[in-house]
Design brief:
Elements lengths: L2 E5 L2 E4 L4 E8 L6 E8 L6 E7 L5 E2 L8 E6 L4 E6 L8 E9 L5 H4 L7 E2 L3 E6 L1
Parallel strand pairs: 2-11
Antiparallel strand pairs: 1-3, 3-8, 4-5, 4-9, 5-6, 7-8, 9-10, 9-11
């Protein structure tokens, strides 16, 4: 059974940085795609970034490209989301997700319904 545990959320001023971590366990993840999503109150879950566990393929929407960086440490079974130049509109609960897949595209990675494993979420609040 896949388990995902996020950490690293908190309160930060606009323009600041945070690094989120997602500790993964329960499976070998070499054939998984790992995604970060966020959900603000009253809004739908939004794609933030994704990475293919094996290889260097990463995926970002326009809203986070150039500000956020996803990476993974295979030795620690951990995925990171480095968030820079944070804006108040980045305020949300951030979720880590994982899905086994034999192939991946941006459109697969950005769709939350494609992921069957989710963490509990971590709150990120950006003050203006």
């Amino acid at each position: 059974q896949v388990q995902l545990v996020e950490s690293g959320g908190g309160l930060v001023q606009a323009g600041g940085s945070l690094r989120l971590s997602c500790a993964a366990s329960g499976r070998p993840f070499s054939s998984y795609v790992m995604g970060w999503f966020r959900q603000a109150p009253g809004k739908e879950r939004e794609f933030v970034a994704a990475i293919k566990w094996s290889g260097d393929s990463t995926y970002y929407p326009e809203s986070t490209k150039g500000r956020f960086t996803i990476s993974r440490d295979s030795a620690k079974n951990t995925v990171y989301l480095q968030m820079n130049s944070l804006k108040p509109e980045d305020t949300a609960v951030y979720y880590c997700a994982a899905q086994w897949t034999s192939s991946i595209s941006y459109y697969f990675a950005k769709t939350p319904e494609n992921y069957s494993n989710w963490g509990q979420g971590t709150q990120v609040t950006v003050s203006s």
